[in-house]
Amino acid sequence: METLVKKGHCAFCKTEIRSTLSQGPHPKTKAKYCPNCGAQLWMVHDCGTPLRYEDRYCTKCGEPNPIYLDNDPDYFADPVEE
Hints:
alpha+beta; 3 strands; 2 helices; 3-stranded antiparallel β-sheet; globular
């Protein structure tokens, strides 16, 4: 089963947010939020690497992502209703 995030849906409110997920963090605020529920989707790590909420670790420095969703089945195992 494909995850909500991989299908372009917010893991919190299940809204379709493919364009928001693909945009990256805002250059000034260094973050991006779901337009429906306000959950943080993107951030810029201390080392300058943009991280999405499903990235477990920073790919540059290896530190944990503070906004990581974890492997909570409530987020990742929910089927997307077509």
